[in-house]
Write a structure and sequence with these properties.
The protein is an all-alpha fold. The protein has 17 helices and no strands.
């Protein structure tokens, strides 16, 4: 059951992320060419502000998911009902705080941002984005938590994908029909609210057995203040760059950063799909059979590292050729910045390597024990970002993120290996070193090869062929240091493929 749900989660997540990335690339280009870089920067900045407003959740979701792993694994339905009751009531309280915050910030935000866009337009755009967020807390959040904890992320993914396709298609249509930006965002808000109805329908059909009148068990989610720190640091670290650039530069610079971020977020979709796919299954396995978990995690870690390094290495090489195509005809600001892809690649690789340890910490519920490195990281990031942005702009804030992330990834990796996995941390460091050397060599050698990419079709060809070649190089490199783990991966996947082929042949005959 865990294996099939994990695979289903991974497949649906990759499909959904692919669609999101494609629309995520098309829409900013249309916003930039139709409304200018300033409007694109404004929309990215508003989205970024809501990351910080969502901190009012205070780690509730993360604590609730972690609390649900054990009772779900042990089929303790009464315990599940009590945790969900506490989660629902807590989310409604958070929703009130978020509503007040949205109304307040909507009035203040336009006064802080350096922009030629009029005050009322910015306020309306902010409120439209906020309406979706507030309704989610009141009506939807508890359902999402249960589905995540029960390894049914594919349900969330499918609904989000449906809404994403609808909203993006509507935006594109309205842009071509020359509607203004408020009308476009109004369509987004209206269609996004339909998502709540889809979730409500699914939950009513599949979870009739839930006791909505259960006594809330607030004790099970009492450690949320520690999970809040982890959640807050993750959100701030992932979004501090845009906040600093919004306050200390201008919205056109934010637009440049946002375009680079879209590229690397798109590359990140496959690693994220892999993690999201196995997340709940690993969490329940950790609570049920730690020895088995440790064995499976080691193999997953190796494959995850190979895939992540391969994808981001190719991204680093192809960022400049892609931007030359993507920003052709845009003249209000320069989008190609020498050296920036290397810093983005380093930042994303460190974040992905840290995420491996972070997930294990979440499974174990060791939020309090690992709170200090999280706080130190965000202090380093904030201070260095403010300092570096003055003389290095976008490169400065990304460099600050790299330095801060390096500190935390080392701290988390040491803690996870020593206290949760009971193994020598040198194993992990050796993998990082080998993969980093391979990546550096590939990027250096490719920099001496001129890439003549004149259209998107040629870009896709280069990307696919390059990814295959680079992945094989990383795979061979890891054979020397992780042969047994790779063998375990093959033994895990082989019966799945065998059963699929057997089923297909049976259908044919």
């Amino acid at each position: 059951m865990r294996r099939s749900r994990s695979i289903r989660n991974i497949i649906t997540s990759i499909g959904s992320q692919t669609i999101v990335v494609l629309f995520g690339l098309v829409l900013p280009r249309l916003f930039i060419t139709s409304f200018g870089s300033e409007v694109n920067g404004l929309l990215s900045s508003i989205t970024n502000v809501f990351v910080y407003i969502n901190l009012l959740e205070a780690g509730l979701g993360l604590a609730s998911i972690q609390a649900l792993y054990a009772p779900l694994a042990n089929h303790e339905q009464n315990k599940v009902d009590s945790i969900l009751a506490a989660t629902a009531r807590s989310y409604r309280r958070v929703g009130i705080y978020v509503l007040a915050c949205v109304l307040s910030v909507a009035l203040i935000y336009p006064l802080i941002v350096e922009s030629s866009i009029n005050y009322c337009t910015i306020v309306v755009l902010f409120l439209l984005q906020g309406s979706v967020t507030v309704l989610d807390y009141f009506l939807q959040a508890k359902n999402r938590i249960l589905l995540q904890a029960e390894a049914k992320s594919y349900v969330i993914t499918n609904i989000n994908m449906t809404i994403s396709i609808a909203t993006s298609t509507c935006k594109i249509l309205l842009i071509f029909l020359h509607f203004d930006i408020i009308a476009i965002q109004l369509s987004f808000a209206f269609i996004s609210m339909l998502k709540i109805l889809l979730f409500q329908r699914y939950m009513h059909k599949q979870y009739k057995h839930l006791n909505k009148n259960a006594e809330p068990d607030f004790g099970s989610i009492s450690d949320r203040k520690y999970s809040f720190v982890h959640n807050a640091v993750f959100m701030i670290s992932a979004n501090i760059d845009i906040l600093i650039l919004t306050v200390m530069t201008n919205l056109k610079v934010v637009s440049v950063y946002a375009v680079y971020k879209i590229i690397y977020q798109g590359v990140k979709m496959i690693p994220s799909a892999l993690q999201n796919g196995v997340n709940a299954s690993f969490g329940q396995l950790y609570a049920d059979n730690k020895e088995r978990f440790t064995e499976m995690y080691a193999s997953f870690e190796v494959m995850y590292t190979i895939i992540t390094f391969s994808l981001f290495t190719v991204a680093c090489i192809l960022t400049k050729p892609f931007l030359m195509l993507y920003t052709a005809g845009v003249t209000d600001i320069e989008y190609i910045i020498y050296g920036l892809p290397i810093f983005f690649t380093a930042s994303e690789l460190l974040n992905e390597m840290r995420s491996l340890s972070t997930k294990v910490i979440h499974y174990a519920g060791h939020f309090k024990q690992t709170m200090k490195p999280a706080i130190i990281e965000i202090i380093i990031n904030c201070l260095l970002s403010v300092l570096f942005v003055k003389f290095a702009g976008i490169i400065g804030v990304v460099l600050a993120t790299v330095i801060a992330s390096l500190y935390r990834v080392i701290a988390y990796t040491q803690y996870t290996n020593k206290y949760l996995l009971n193994r020598d941390v040198k194993i992990t460091y050796r993998r990082w070193t080998v993969n980093s050397i391979v990546a550096a060599c590939i990027i250096f050698l490719s920099s001496n090869i001129p890439l003549e990419i004149g259209n998107y079709f040629m870009f896709v060809v280069y990307a696919v062929v390059g990814t295959v070649i680079v992945s094989l190089m990383f795979f061979v490199g890891n054979l020397f240091i992780a042969k047994s783990e790779l063998g375990y991966v093959v033994s895990y996947i082989k019966p799945i493929l065998h059963n699929r082929l057997k089923a297909r042949n049976k259908d044919v005959h």
